Amino acid sequence: MPLCIILVWVLASTGLAKVDKDMRRKLMIASVGFSVFMSLLVVHFLGMPYTWLRFLRKSDLNDTDMPLTSTPSEEVIYPSQQLRHPAAHIAYIKTHKTGSSTIWSILVTYALENNLTIAIPATRQGNKLGWPKSFTPADAVPPKPDLLCYHSRFSSAMLDYMPEDTIYLSSVRDPATQLLSAYQYFGASSCFNMSFTEFLDRPSKTASFVGRCSEYYKWWLMNGQMYDLGLDTSLLSSTNPVDRSKVLDVILKLDRQLHMVLVLELLDESLIVMRDLLEWTTLDVVYFRKNFQLGTKVDVTYTESRKAQARKWNWADEMLYSHFRQKLETILSQRPEYYKIEVANLKALSDQWMSRCVRKVIPAALANNKYLKTGYEDNIGTYRLTSNGQHNNKCILLTMTEVAKIRLLNNGSSIDVKTFQGGTILDT
Question: What are the pLDDT digits (tens) for 16-33?
Fold first, then answer.
């Protein structure tokens, strides 16, 4: 309204107010409309997420005993804390071999640092909430937790179990590399007594899922990402138009139910989008890789044509992946320079914490602390901490293995320096 008064004064002072009554009325209406429009525009921008207000900086390193001088450690502070409302209710549908252990660790670290409750198995054992069956509230405790992130199979019951304002997340991966990773990680070659290439060449792959190889391998290797997200994939046929239509319907429904799906091939970009969605800071999404394989030899026979075979076999996963990758790329294309800068900042900050916490990457079998062991040590990497890292809670949360965290969470034990030091096997 002040703008409207100013316009009227200008009209009067310049002599334009002497125009006929009808013209004055039109000018007044126009000025009022313009004033209202500008007011709404200001309110809109002030109410937008904090990522549009990134102009003050602070250190992301919350310990002062070991200062770092590099500028990428800086992070956003906000003109008003009321403008930032970090999400505190999150459900992550943890799909297999999609970078999910790394994402799981990020979410659990945030929950522990912010005193959020985490859903654990009702049995207080293992890393699954009812999987491979669909999730039910009886699979987990406590009711209405802040975070659900153990392996579970998405179902409508999950929506009832979690608080109403829960943000739902998941992750996907190129089915070609996901299938290879699952085949190697779960030891399918030993169970099937055939190499990955032989498996791809087998005309009837479902014939492999018999005997001791039947229970889990069909869910890990046959459109496993779609299975984890709730679709029964065992009877699907890629040549049946009805089945393809059914898969598309499920994907579109997931698009409505999930607030975001991270893409492993664009993990850092995904984490920045997730950070903004959850209204977290960059420090909240700093990560070290989890459950990674050391010195994995690239299968020279895994050519593009072989990858096409894998995608054809897991065609429902391919439809799922293509949909959500395209959706993410659309988001990134809207602000390319912003995401480029933010990804660079995330990588630099992760590197700083890696230098601060980790002396070197080692085979898990050589870990000198039981909380840095994976429980399946063959070819899996872990970390040897620096002296300072062994006394820093953030370093411990960043490096402790998933299996160790799960065991402590299920037992109701704390995850901190004191607990970590109790796991020392030997000093090196």
Answer: 445 555 655 655 666 656
Average pLDDT over residues 185-192: 88
Domain boundary among 77, 98, 126: 77
Report helix, strand or coil for 134: strand
**Comparing C-alpha atoms, which of 115, 307, 170, 316 is closest to residue 232?**
316
Token pair 């997420």: residue: 49
Structural domain including 122 reads 86-346
148, amino acid identity? L
Q: How far apart are CA 280 and CA 109, in angstroms?
A: 13
Per the listing, tokens 């370093």 go with 395
What does the block give as tokens for 71? Answer: 């500028």
Mean pLDDT calculated for residue range 2-21: 50
pLDDT of 364 over the 70 cut: yes
Task: Name the burial class of residue 4, with classes exposed (0-12), middle (13-18) and buried (19+) by CB atoms within 10 angstroms of its CB.
Answer: middle
Structure tokens at 205: 């792959």
Residues 73 and 107 in one domain: no
Question: Is 178:225 a contact under the CB 8 Å cutoff?
Answer: yes
Is residue 362 helix, strand or coil?
strand
Strand order in the sheet with 90-93: 147-148, 90-93, 167-172, 260-263
| Contact (Cβ atoms closer than 8 angstroms) between residue 182 and residue 196 | no
What does the alpha-carbon distance between residue 360 and residue 377 come to, in Å, rounded to a whole number?
Answer: 17
Of 244, 257, 216, residue with least CA distance to 96:
216
Residues 53 and 186 occupy one common structural domain: no
Among 298, 322, 346, which residue terminates a domain? 346
Question: What are the structure tokens assigned to 146, written together?
Answer: 């802040």
In this prediction the pTM is: 0.79
CA 422, 426, 428 angle in degrees (round to 5)? 125
Q: Is 165 helix (H, G, I), strand (E, B) or coil?
A: coil
Burial profile 353-368: b = 16 or more Cβ within 10 angstroms, e = fewer: bbebbbeeebebeebe
Question: What is the distance between the alpha carbons of residues 210 and 398, in angstroms, rounded to a whole number?
Answer: 39
The Cα 268–Cα 383 span in angstroms is 21
pLDDT for 187? 87
- Cα–Cα distance for residue pair 255/166, rounded to 1 Å: 15
